[in-house]
Amino acid sequence: MAAGGNQKQSVEHIGMGEARRQRAALSEQRVEYGNGREAKLLTVQSIRSALGAAARFFEGGARQRVLSA
């Protein structure tokens, strides 16, 4: 049981690392496009898609936890 718990934890850490990478990509985009409404709309859209991906990732993790419990 303990080994399974460690495995789940590592999966979550991988997900958090991915979120950090996406945030870094977003900040690069912001610099690349500069100021203006277009840049803001693009970053909001990117943030929403990144949050959606993170939500799907964690929903999947929650289902795995229920099945393995």
Shape: elongated
What is the percent of helical residues? over 70%
> In terms of quaternary structure, what is this?
single chain
Q: What is the count of structural domains?
A: 1
Q: In words, what does this structure look like?
A:
- It is a single chain.
- The N terminus is likely disordered.
- The chain has one domain.
- The protein has two helices and no strands.
- The relative contact order is 0.14.
- The protein is elongated, with a radius of gyration of 16 Å.
- It has 69 residues and is an all-alpha fold.
- The longest helix is centred in the first third of the chain and has 32 residues.
Which descriptors apply to this entry?
69 residues, 2 helices, 93% helix, 0% strand, disordered N terminus
Give a quick rundown of the structure:
This protein is an all-alpha fold. The protein has helices spanning 2-33, 37-68. It is built from 2 helices and no strands.
SSE inventory with pairings:
Blueprint: H1 2-33, H2 37-68
Helix pairs in contact: 1-2
Region (Disordered): 1-23
